[in-house]
Design brief:
Layout lengths: L1 H23 L6 H19 L2 H5 L3 H42 L5 H5 L3 H11 L8 E2 L8 H9 L2 E11 L9 E17 L2 E6 L1 H4 L4 E5 L5 E10 L4 E7 L9 E2 L9 E6 L9 E18 L2 E10 L11 E3 L5 E8 L9 E5 H14 L9 E5 L19 E6 L4 H5 L6 E5 L2 E2 L3 H10 L6 E8 L2 E8 L3
Parallel strand pairs: 1-8
Antiparallel strand pairs: 2-3, 2-5, 3-4, 4-7, 5-6, 6-7, 9-10, 9-12, 10-11, 11-14, 12-13, 13-14, 15-16, 16-17, 17-18, 17-19, 19-20
Length: about 450
């Protein structure tokens, strides 16, 4: 019995050691399988050490010790399983909470610098004015009301003050500035201490003082950067401290009849400032003849049925994405006519705006002549023309030392062609001169003089 008891103890010690070592190398194993292996191994090993009858003769103390040891081993396994499961569950829950909460914190923003803010800082540090460009159309998640609210912050009212003689006290030299008209404008760029506004030339023409009314009610005095009467465009500047938002120009070449548009401006004065009207693009690439202080001109416009009234001039025509695709310029207001408003396309005005900011004026070839359409001149002045010639441009004035004077053009000459292109009106002549040739070029004019057709070569001044 003593020998058997000692053998039993040695067997139990061996079994305990083997079980502990096995667990140390099987962290990811299935514990149920290990327990079964242990039981099977125990059943196989016991008959080799003891006879079947010997097991029944073990004292109660030995049997109790053996049973207690097995229970302790099984409980230890269960505790290991529970501990592993708890650790795994805690890790999963922690990961889920991290992924759910982290995007709503500033950790990522602080870790990765904002590229957009970097771009803004770089542009503010520069001193040169960046050329204006049309932005590609992007999908907007904002409602129309939100879009209009954002763009409205860039719309300003412009009041034109002009000097007026005041003879009330008998002093003919006294004068005062009086309000002579008002219009609208769009803030499109902010560069360091200066903000730029685009508007119509006829809104600011002849002004001795220009006052700008902003979205928040503040008022500022504006300076003229440059004007172009022919295209009816002007650029103003104000102190940038008044400006909180700027507008983007869109690509007007993408417009189609039926596209939705909105006009924002100050119809009938500042009392109705930032009025919004809705409509569609009625037509694109319309050619409208207008009379300006620089002469007659056929201007390219967008036609819209959005309501445009006096005071809207210089305001914005925007698309649903909030981009300025035109500057409202004129309307036909004849009796019985409705829904015929016109805006200068953004793609036409952007080059003008950039050149006005750069040099304050538009450099165009200069001929140095006064013009009159042939059909507006009494026939007695051109009765020597062939019967087939009824269209052309008569020269009414030649400036001394101009390109025309140096080439030998004379008053009453009738121009009918330029480099082989037929010229039927003064608008044709200006459009060809300003769009087809450059300063320094040579032009062959087809001219009728005293009933005879001649060719005059004119070299445009640089």
């Amino acid at each position: 019995m003593t020998e058997n008891t000692n053998a039993e103890k040695q067997s139990m010690d061996t079994i305990k050691f083997s079980h502990t070592e096995e667990n140390s190398h099987a962290v990811d194993a299935t514990f149920t399988v290990e327990t079964n292996d242990f039981v099977n191994r125990e059943e196989q090993e016991e008959p080799t050490e003891f006879e079947p009858t010997a097991e029944a003769t073990l004292p109660p103390e030995m049997e109790q010790t053996r049973t207690t040891s097995q229970v302790d081993q099984k409980n230890k396994k269960k505790r290991n399983v529970k501990g592993f499961a708890s650790t795994l569950a805690a890790g999963v829950i922690g990961s889920v909470l991290t992924l759910a909460i982290l995007p709503h914190t500033d950790y990522i923003n602080n870790l990765v610098p904002n590229v957009e803010n970097q771009g803004t800082m770089s542009s503010q540090q520069g001193t040169a004015v960046k050329p204006v460009v049309a932005q590609p159309r992007a999908a907007s998640s904002n409602s129309i009301a939100d879009t209009v609210e954002n763009v409205s912050k860039t719309i300003v009212g412009i009041v034109n003050y002009q000097q007026q003689q005041n003879n009330f006290y008998g002093n003919p030299n006294s004068s005062q500035s009086v309000e002579s008209g008002s219009g609208s404008g769009v803030i499109f760029q902010k560069n360091n201490d200066t903000a730029y506004i685009v508007t119509n030339n006829h809104v600011v023409e002849g002004a001795s003082k220009l006052e700008v009314s902003l979205f928040n009610g503040e008022k500022a005095t504006a300076e003229v950067v440059g004007t172009d009467a022919l295209t009816d465009l002007a650029v103003l500047k104000i102190d940038a401290k008044y400006v909180t938002a700027t507008a983007d120009f869109g690509d007007s070449s993408t417009l189609r009849p039926g596209d939705q548009v909105f006009a924002i401006g100050n119809p009938l004065g500042l009392d109705l400032s930032r009025t919004v009207t809705q409509g569609i693009v009625s037509a694109t690439n319309r050619s409208i003849a207008i009379t300006t202080t620089a002469g007659n001109w056929d201007t390219n416009v967008i036609q819209t049925d959005a309501a445009i009234n006096p005071g809207n001039s210089g305001g914005a025509l925007i698309n649903p994405q909030g981009q300025v695709i035109g500057i409202n310029s004129l309307k036909i207001s004849e009796s019985g006519v409705e829904g015929l408003g016109f805006a200068i396309p953004s793609n036409d005005l952007i080059p003008i705006v950039n050149q006005l900011i750069k040099s304050g004026k538009i450099d165009r070839p200069y001929l140095g002549v006064g013009l009159a359409d042939l059909d507006q001149v009494p026939q007695m002045y051109w009765q020597n023309l062939p019967n087939s010639t009824t269209k052309g441009v008569m020269l009414t004035n030649i400036e001394p030392n101009s390109a025309a004077a140096k080439a030998g053009l004379q008053v009453k000459d009738i121009i009918v062609s330029m480099n082989g292109t037929e010229i039927t009106s003064s608008s044709d002549l200006r459009k060809y001169l300003y769009t087809k040739v450059n300063m320094g070029d040579d032009i062959k004019f087809g001219v009728y003089r005293d009933g005879k057709q001649i060719t005059v070569n004119v070299k445009l001044a640089d």
